[in-house]
Amino acid sequence: MLSRVADSLYWMARYIERAEHTARLIAVKLESMVEQTPEDAAASWARVIEALTGEKTAPSHLDAFAITKRLAFERDNDSSLITSLALARDNARQVREALSNEVWENLNRLYLRLTPVTMDSIWVHTPARLFREALEEMHALEGVTYSTLSHGEGWYFLELGRHIERVQQLGRLLDLHFTAAQSENGPKYFDWLVLLKFCSAWEPYTKEYTASIRPQKIAEFLLFDSEFPHSICFSVDRMSEALARVAPGAPPARRAAVERLAGRLKSAVDFGQVDELMSGGVAGFIADITKQCEQIHKALYASYITYGAETVL
Amino acid sequence: MQHEAFANTEDFGGPDIVAAPGRASRPGQDEPYAQYALGKPYDEMFTPGGQARAPYAAIDARLATLPLEELNRRQQACEQSFLHQGITFTVYSDNRATERIIPTDLIPRVITAPEWSRLEAGLTQRIHALNLFLRDIYNDGRVLKDGVIPRSMIYGSKHYRREMRGLPVPHGAYVNICGSDLIRNERGEFVVLEDNLRVPSGVSYMLANRDVVRRAFPAVFRSMGVRPIEHYPLELLATLRSLVPFHEDVSIAILTPGVFNSAYFEHAFLARQMGVELVEGRDLLINDNVVYTRTTSGLKRIDVIYRRVDDDFIDPLVFREDSALGVPGLFNAYRAGNVIIANALGTGVADDKAVYAYVPRLIRYYLAEEPILDNVETFLCREEKSLQHVLANLDKLVVKAVGESGGYGMLVGPHASQKEREDFAEKIKADPENYIAQPTIQLSTAPTFVGNGIEARHVDLRPFILHGAETKLVPGALTRVALKRGSLVVNSSQGGGSKDTWVLSQ
Predict the structure, then answer these.
(1) For residue B148, which of A45, B10, B321, B408 sits 20 to 30 Å off, Cα-Cα?
(2) The CATH number of the domain covering residues in B251-302+304-338
(3) How many whole angstroms separate alpha carbon B294 and alpha carbon B279?
């Protein structure tokens, strides 16, 4: 596979994952705010903004309309839903020949349908509905990708992009919630419930731990559950699998550089213990995982994508 | 309830029917043809007396029964389909990029079997002669020694590539992919307007148009015996493969300028349809005169490059040094015989305005045959007799400077003032070799849906010719249409659209 194509597939998947995460956070937040006091809703909005943009906002001047507009539709916001979709589409367009028609058309249609949508048009009825529909479309896109694209190298680059991005996004959400839990005005019962919904984890969690909401169990589930698709552990497993499948013909030395990092990350997650983390160690653990993902990203590029031609001739 | 943003807009409507011929609609009188103007140009569908020509009978009958709203709906479904497939080009204005589609008119243009076999024979003859000509001028120059064409015209051409002299080209096939522009004159005969021998585009529109028009008129399509064109990518692949004989596992790539090129969709489309790699200059590197792509697993050798990048930009070491699209060292690899580039470099010398006028003579010279397809009548001012004719008839002719393009250095006689004509005459007399003249060209007209009716619009025809070990034409073409009433400009950048072209099997 061309290195440039691998690069575009990887970023296409990262941006789609980011768009999906953004749409889900907005949808869940819009749905849940009606059940919260204005103060709790504001604190929760502030966490959403920080999770999606990294910006800290004073919870006192929060206006749901303006925030939704900024997070969903503003193109000068680098991490808005529409920006992520536009970037995913730009990358997809550059590798049209490496994608199936169905994948391209699903992504393109979603983008074209969201482009003309205005805040006023969605705000009059049920604002969350548009984001739910966008999520459905993105799930359909995922299914179409799974069933129309060969599960070869390109597919595994998509998997890598998707899961590296997912670990980063999940990590930020968990970090924000568990760091806030250390303070006095930390997340309440309802906020933990919303956190699970942010990760589409509410029902899977209750199946595993019943409906009793306990932060330690939530951390255990979202960090270490190997079967739930939005857990750190699940994504790390998919990354390891994918790394074993990409660049099959690359020289062993270059492969080893990437696989060593992947193995280290996997063992960190496999042997992590939630009870060791609960006394404030969640943030440190997540910081470590995130850093390892960044190293894997760099090694992946150095070994397979941006390597100097002189090293192989 | 669905959110309106998610409503399905790509519905082409229910089954189509073949209507029985019954009520006859006269152009210029009855709906939907009330505004249909029949004039001096040949009309593809109607005889001068207003009768639908026989090959159009089924289309005429269908249009007579299809409500205009329905046609409108299908037209919009077609546009949606193009938009979703990403068959767009990007227009940049006010720092904003807008994606536009090239409009497809749903009413097909019909070419009969005898017309096609004449076109096929004529274009095959033409591409043979042009390839022999290119081989000749890059080798012995026999045609120059024999005085058939002036030496200065070739060696002075900015498209002549000295670097190509003496280089062997497989099968002597310099032009492997050609997209000639033809028009139908007032007598209904096809004549060649231009040979595009460099990097012709449009073939993806030929295929995309077929896809949507067949869906819009399925029954009419089936009833008329339209010849298929879907095998074009296969034929293109076979043509490219034939350039590397005795080689089992040929690795082929399409070289694109990248995603910002207006024909990018076509490059990606052909790569996908042929199952070959789509590469940009930055994906390729040359080592020891061998071309490689940079892949995740290491470097992979490339044998054939179907390039969609102009000569000037293909190798900054040999041609334009400011080119970021090309690959440094590519030409040396080519010269070493380690890679085939299609089309070969330097083919542009054979499709400029002055050489065009000589093509009929080149056909006689190389093939000892009479040209099957005529040129548009062209007067070369370098020839005394023509010069006198041009000067005497400036009010009826279009005069063009041979080295210029895009409408520069041109006189449109009928629209110019007496003073302008006199001034231009002086220029011609001062440098007659630099000018050619043609009568004002009348393109034929074809029925085109314009929203509230069907009107006559001017069209041309671009068939695609493949030439490797053998010559092949897929029976179809891109029909370009000038969507503005009376306009003769079919270019997509200036309000042109396109039509599906139905070549009948009998």
Answers:
(1) B408
(2) 3.40.50.11290
(3) 10
